[in-house]
Amino acid sequence: MDQQHQLKIEAARAALKYIEDDQIIGIGTGSTVNCFIELLKDHTHRIKGAVSSSVVSTQRLEALGIEVIDLNDAAEIPVYVDGTDESNHNLELIKGGGGALSREKIIAAVADTFVCIADQSKYVETLGDFPLPIEVLPMARSYVARELVKLGGDPVYRHGFVTDNGNIILDVHNMEITQAKILEEKINQITGVVTNGLFATRPADHLILATNKGIQEYSK
Ligand code: 5RP
């Protein structure tokens, strides 16, 4: 097993302390979250159910016998656990490398507490080295791309990828993101954008970062 994967497991393990008995938990998407789901197999008896951000995570949860509940039927989500592509010191994130950003953002909005789990490579000074994913309605692809160029980015169509919502992803390169909240709002104003992968209006509440020197935890 490579070192990065080992760190993902350690971050996932450190998040287990946020799971309380008989609650509905929110579950994100990605390889770090897959480590977390794997660890849940010893805790299924105390989990009431899960709200999932993707078809892939749903399949993994159901394989463990955890009931996956429609978000509209969940009165509350005390804790949401998800990974990230980048986090800065304000716990503002870039997410969506796996293309599940819109559902992830919806669950994060509903959750009381958002616990982000990551290996050390995800912690950055300034957001934007990782191309910013944007979910777009297919017919708006070219228009949205032109508007993103006006904002200073270089959008690249993620070929061959369709989101769980039937939409496409534009990955925006070369954005140095110093005012994440403002940019998040600006991009979401472009007609045809479902949402973008900046999680600044609703950042994480806790970042569990697994490093070579052990777990570091940052809180808002
Ligand atoms: C999926 C995401 C993931 O959380 C993000 O891409 C990190 O993935 P990984 O844990 O595989 O590095 O936002 O849409």
In words, what does this structure look like?
The protein is of the alpha/beta class. It is 27% helix and 27% strand. It contains 6 helices and 13 strands. The chain has helices spanning 3-15, 31-39, 55-63, 101-110, 141-150, 180-188, and strands spanning 23-27, 47-52, 79-82, 86-87, 93-94, 113-119, 132-136, 154-157, 168-173, 193-196, 198-199, 206-211, 214-219. The strands form 3 sheets. The protein has a 6-stranded mixed β-sheet, sandwiched between helices. It has a 4-stranded antiparallel β-sheet with strand order 8-9-7-10. Strands 4-5-11 form a 3-stranded antiparallel β-sheet, covered by helices on one side. A hairpin with a 5-residue loop joins strand 4 and strand 5. The chain is globular. It starts with a helix and ends with a strand. Ribulose-5-phosphate is lined by residues 28-32, 82-85, 95-101, 104.
